[in-house]
Amino acid sequence: MGGIVLDCERNLRWLERLAGLLAEQAGPLTELDAAIGDADHGINMERGFNAVKERVLAQAAGKDLGTVLKQVGTTLVSTVGGAGGPLYGTFFLRMGQSADGKSELDARELRDALAAGVEGVRQRGRAQPGEKTMLDALVPALEALDAALAAGSDNRAAWEAAARAAEEGSRATVPMLARKGRASYLGERSIGHQDPGATSSALLIRSLAEVVG
Amino acid sequence: MGGIVLDCERNLRWLERLAGLLAEQAGPLTELDAAIGDADHGINMERGFNAVKERVLAQAAGKDLGTVLKQVGTTLVSTVGGAGGPLYGTFFLRMGQSADGKSELDARELRDALAAGVEGVRQRGRAQPGEKTMLDALVPALEALDAALAAGSDNRAAWEAAARAAEEGSRATVPMLARKGRASYLGERSIGHQDPGATSSALLIRSLAEVVG
Amino acid sequence: MKKLVNRPEDVVRESLQGLGAAHPDLVEVHLDPHYVVRAGAPVAGKVGLVSGGGSGHEPMHAGYVGRGMLDGACPGEVFTSPTPDQIYECTKRVSSGRGVVHIVKNYTGDVMNFEMAAEMAQGEGIEIRSVVINDDVAVEDSLYTAGRRGVGATVLAEKLAGARAEAGGSLEEVADVVRKVNDHARSMGMALTSCIVPAVGKPTFDIGDDEMEIGIGIHGEPGRQRMKLEPADQIVDRLLEPILDDLGARPGERVLAFVNGMGGTPTIELYVVYRRVAERLRQRGLTIERSLVGSYITSLEMAGCSITILRLDDELVSLWDAPVVTPGLRWGA
Amino acid sequence: MKKLVNRPEDVVRESLQGLGAAHPDLVEVHLDPHYVVRAGAPVAGKVGLVSGGGSGHEPMHAGYVGRGMLDGACPGEVFTSPTPDQIYECTKRVSSGRGVVHIVKNYTGDVMNFEMAAEMAQGEGIEIRSVVINDDVAVEDSLYTAGRRGVGATVLAEKLAGARAEAGGSLEEVADVVRKVNDHARSMGMALTSCIVPAVGKPTFDIGDDEMEIGIGIHGEPGRQRMKLEPADQIVDRLLEPILDDLGARPGERVLAFVNGMGGTPTIELYVVYRRVAERLRQRGLTIERSLVGSYITSLEMAGCSITILRLDDELVSLWDAPVVTPGLRWGA
Ligand SMILES: Nc1ncnc2c1ncn2[C@@H]1O[C@H](COP(=O)(O)OP(=O)(O)O)[C@@H](O)[C@H]1O
Ligand SMILES: Nc1ncnc2c1ncn2[C@@H]1O[C@H](COP(=O)(O)OP(=O)(O)O)[C@@H](O)[C@H]1O
Ligand SMILES: [Mg+2]
Ligand SMILES: [Mg+2]
Ligand SMILES: [Mg+2]
Ligand SMILES: [Mg+2]
């Protein structure tokens, strides 16, 4: 558990993989948003991560982890818009603050950075798990990670558990009644659809799980 | 040839039959107008003849032929609108003026009344046969009527010839290039479609042919 | 047929009633026969200005009744010229003794019905000047047709002649402004979708999902050609070139650029169109001195646009800037 | 996708460029980040008024920049809230030292982005008042949701608060007008057809040829219910009853009636709708003292309408009548 689970190179691989997944899934994410929102979540995330690739990843050489993650956060804040922009922006800003000045994170430090990001989303959006939002993927992921690490799993296994929990969490939003965000305006009619933000959050955790180890 | 071919009762039957035909054919006439005009000819004619039924035919008892026909003309002028209103209005006004004060018309008088109506259309619209208008049904009808009467046909046969000539005339508008009215704006693209006004004019002659004799 | 209407046969009447209810300070609506006059008509000592045509082009014409524009408007059935008695009654109602100018779009029906109304009004001693608008370059001009259709220039003529009448212009002066606008303006339109006449209940024309009609008329009449959909900039170029060629505008001249929506096209797209219009006119050395962007002469819910370019001189600029207070066009007061 | 656009990703920028080209006398367009300010901003000694939101609702908001209305507008991508840096830059640009009011529609994204921008501006010493608009009665109000959506009342708040700011009102007074409008206005909308987000290229929702959506949001969000199409009068009644019930307007009160088109609905239909609105309000004993009919807060090319009723008092009436000179709303000057 004392080893390095995320370094600068893996961090870039994570962000590039996430950008790729979001570009690939932009259509389906937007479809989910069309059902209970305004049909832009995939487009917004893709636009934001295209800017991240151009403005941050292409210039990341020699920068520490914290700096890169904070730049991802400010880039998302200024290019995504909508609810996703401030929420994902805050997620990466807080993660970057948690990793401030560091070029390598061990298992505990990465866990703390994730927790800081999740807490940022919670504060910015004033939501709770169970309200059909990003938090319904992020919070189970964090809990599964903690449980696995506490049970002595190795990092790969622990992050695999986190990614699965995020995916299950996003699927578990289907029967939920939305209580935050645009979907909450639908009341009962929000039931039966998977939340787009929870779905993109599961991609975030999955891509991170792919690079740690 | 000296007999009465149109009296007040037949005149009303003609106008009622024409109103019925126009109501029945309103859809097809409008379709023809959609192809080379503005999709209203059938609707306009039906609206006008509904007004004729209400305002003229329902009150026609005791009125002479000329009066009724002139009232049809003014009613059409004030209810049809478009090109059809002034043209059909003028047709009936002139026919009525030709039959002024009369309650019965013999073959010659009816022929003259028709000729007066056709001449009114020609003057009002400043068109010639061959320009893809009402005149392409009306003028052949008048010519066929004259020819048949000159050849000694009986009235029924002469008017049957007129009705056929009007129908052939309206079909003959298909290959014509429109040179008057809204269809003329299409230039070459007006070719290949039957003129709506010629088609409704053929109904006018046909319904008249059905009652004379 | 997806429309906010009750019975199709009541659309024109009910819409006029709504107009009257919404703008009692500006207009007075008369029914049977239908016409709309400026509140307080006739205006003493003023030349009257009357226009009209089929309904379905709103706000034209009834929406342009008011101070600095029309004294009266005669709405026919949808896409059907008004009848002579409407025009005659309206003309009498706005006449203050100095004569009345009729602005007539060049459609056989409009021309004939206005002609009959003018004869009736003249019979009552009202002096009439009728000016026919025929600015649509989509229709090849020819001695052998009814000429060109009247479209976007009508709106500009109503505004500009209305300003001249408001300023005390004589019958001939007001008619001259209409003639000048017609001489100095050219238009062309295009459609992405068809309109649906309420009484018909289905599209006037069929058009493929990837097609557009270039040179469309304001009643959904076919235009120059049916072709594959293109980016906005190319569409603008297709409309603008024939307009500018026909207008013969030379570098250094000042123009008014009017980008008009057909009824179903939203404002965001009209400004995308305007952007290219401004770019092209600059490239041709023309100065846009005034502009108008919006849905001012429509074809029911048709999606598409038209462009009208008017050559300006000092007189027209000052008439354009004069106050206008109508339901559909308003500034300066 | 039948739209007058070039590349979908350029629609917002190109439309803003068109707006700037068409109205250089009224507005100044800034790109990257995108915002629109009144020509000559900041106005010395005047409280600033800024709004913004996703694009696709034109003329709102950028079309309401100008004298007597907004000092600045921040257009996001289509249907996507603007970003904090846009709002921050715009706010700085219009600030003359007396503070800036933010008018924010109640959508999570708008609220969060404006919140972050306000924090940034306050960090620079600019005093900010943010007022959230939430007038849409289609959404059942509940402690357990993000509340009601902001719709038609936004346009009225921008006009009325703009008049108060123009007249020299203090930061608190201007914010108070926005609060008052929000308290005294209720809205509800409906759709006949879906809008198409340019980047998506297909309709946001599917709807049958004989169906309508009652309580639609301005981004095509589903509303209260999907049902069979009805005549306009019945549709009006369906929208108006919940509005009036929620508003609690009593006989004898004066109101402003605002009939809004969603972008694809032509003016002729809006007046058919207005006719019934006027009739029903009269039956309920309410007096329509002012009205607004047109497409002022749209959802791209969606066909449909919304109704907003605002209770009036003398203050609001005089603010309404004050001059306004913007690309999208103009009178009195
Ligand atoms: N208050 C909130 N807290 C956490 N997540 C939220 C909140 N509001 C919305 N979301 C998330 O944002 C997603 C929608 O994002 P997006 O479509 O980009 O923004 P918008 O709703 O402004 O169009 C939702 O699916 C939901 O997961
Ligand atoms: N100048 C004219 N002379 C004779 N008939 C004409 C003339 N112009 C048009 N028409 C006839 O009018 C018909 C169209 O009538 P209608 O659809 O009622 O009027 P509009 O073209 O105004 O919509 C055409 O089919 C044609 O037969
Ligand atoms: Mg969304
Ligand atoms: Mg026709
Ligand atoms: Mg017609
Ligand atoms: Mg959005």
If you had to describe this structure to a student in words, what would you say it looks like?
- The complex is a heterotetramer, with two copies of chain A (213 residues) and two copies of chain C (333 residues).
- Chain A is mostly helical.
- Chain A has nine helices and two strands.
- A two-stranded antiparallel ribbon of chain A has the order 1-2.
- In chain A, helix 2 (26-36) packs antiparallel against helix 3 (41-55).
- The termini of chain A are close together.
- With 333 residues, chain C is α/β, with parallel strands linked by helices.
- Chain C folds into two domains: 15-184, Rossmann fold (3-Layer(aba) Sandwich); 185-313, Hypothetical Protein Tm841, Chain: A,domain 3.
- Chain C has helices spanning 11-22, 84-94, 108-123, 153-166, 171-184, 232-247, 267-283, 314-321, and strands spanning 27-30, 35-38, 48-55, 72-78, 100-105, 128-133, 185-191, 211-214, 225-228, 254-261, 287-294, 304-311, 324-325, 330-331.
- In chain C, the strands form three sheets. A six-stranded mixed β-sheet of chain C has the order 1-2-4-3-5-6, with helices on both faces. A six-stranded mixed β-sheet of chain C has the order 9-8-7-12-10-11. A two-stranded antiparallel ribbon of chain C has the order 13-14.
- In chain C, helix 2 packs across helix 3 (108-123) and helix 4 (153-166) runs antiparallel to helix 5 (171-184).
- The N and C termini of chain C lie far apart (40 Å).
- The interface between C and D is large, with 64 and 64 residues.
- The complex binds adenosine-5'-diphosphate (2 copies) and magnesium ion (MG) (4 copies).
